[in-house]
Amino acid sequence: xxxxxxxxxxxxxxxxxxxxxxxxxxxxxxxxxxxxxxxxxxxxxxxxxxxxxxxxxxxxxxxxxxxxxxxxxxxxxxxxxxxxxxxxxxxxxxxxxxxxxxxxxxxxxxxxxx
Length: 114
Fold this sequence. Notes:
Number of strands: 4
Strand content: 15-25%
CATH topology of the largest domain: Alpha-Beta Plaits
CATH class of the largest domain: Alpha Beta
CATH architecture of the largest domain: 2-Layer Sandwich
Order of helices and strands: EHEEHEH
Largest sheet: 4 strands, antiparallel
Structural class: alpha+beta
Mean pLDDT: 89
Radius of gyration: 20 Å
């Protein structure tokens, strides 16, 4: 399974509502889990079996709860038993379509040159 999640405090102790310190606590939990993961500006994606992924998300949420009395959590999951390395395979599958587009453009350019 792949899960993309975002966990953030709803209360911060500064005027600019900076959340990076609290969010870094969650990302640290993910990194220490040993599961394949990727962190972007808005979400962290993690891959593994249901129980291990949900355990990491729970612990990441608890890490943010330690610094905020209220926490927001968003989870989106792709549950596909029997498949692994889907974080990379899904992107590779998508990219194939773009390489086909480039070949189509090159073929069209070649035809126009004749």
